[in-house]
């Protein structure tokens, strides 16, 4: 079967749907020779003045613009991939077929023409697996718009949808699957695909997170009476918790005191130390503005207070002297004067790449990353400054202390100090065991 059709994608700004603030949706128009065009809304809006008519993308360097252009790039890659897949199965492809496949629908929609029309209509009203995922994501997007859920978690849901699409094509040679065809083995096969069979395999924890989300979708389907019982219910998504060893305080000091002549690395060092003494995650540090600094109490202490991007829980930390020093360095920096951000922060990818260089020049024999800084903060607060677990949990913006327990494990410094203070209870000054009757109760 040979198919010589070509695909053309055009991204444009639908000004006729412009809202009162001048923002209009961005549309992808699919054209395939020999058939009518089809359109897909990419789910993003751009201002009239911020749309590049020549290059068909958003203008600017802010986070929102980057997200729009990233979505355009992702959609371009996805549609071209599905088009190539369809070329291997059909002699003639239409734009509507490509749109259907991208949206998780059958490439060709069948019309009902027999006497059992009502029964078939009832059956077809039950969505497929990917349609159910799309419904779930649409509901999630509405909660994100209301500030009830995180944009980062929404990205994870979109990633799960993509992984499911790729798995269905790899394992079953299909674009979708009816809910009643899913069996318990689906979960294990999906796990095997993610960890051993796809081109770029992922770790156990990430794979089980995708399966956990798939289980949530099927729970939603069960609640909606589309299936009798979730077939993946018995698949266990628990993972072995890898203990992350925080940096020792001497290592933190070594990084802080290192003379770094290269500006970009000096800024990355400051950002990393900033995280080590605030506990803020990357996306939260990236979004910090002077408005997040609040004066607290009679002593007029300066605090950083912000709704955590991932959970929406308020995280609050006192601004320690080392953080004040970092903030003062960037009072006249472009990050503050033009972009309104407290400190300069690169993209997550560049930041983590530069941290590898930083580790090398500082003589730190392990990988530095943004999440390690968060664990280091928890360790400093619990084991050196001896804050309670509840206080550390609040500073980290966790919903439960159970989550904090994975971050803040009791360390040898705290044990050592406690032992020094309590040693005399059990032993005499010369190290002899006290008589049982003389022990303090």
Automatic annotation (TrEMBL):
Protein name: Site-specific integrase
Presence of the UniProt keyword Thylakoid in the record: no
Highest taxon of source: Bacteria
Species, as recorded: Mucilaginibacter pankratovii
CDD domains: INTN1_C_like
PANTHER family in the cross-refs: PHAGE INTEGRASE-RELATED, PROPHAGE INTEGRASE INTD-RELATED
Stored InterPro entries: Arm-DNA-bind_5, DNA_brk_join_enz, Integrase-like_cat_sf, Integrase_catalytic, Integrase_recombinase_N, SAM-like_dom, Tyrosine_recombinase_XerCD
Residue span(s) of domain Tyr recombinase: 242-420
Family the entry assigns: Belongs to the 'phage' integrase family.
UniProt xrefs under PROSITE patterns: TYR_RECOMBINASE
Keywords: DNA recombination, DNA-binding
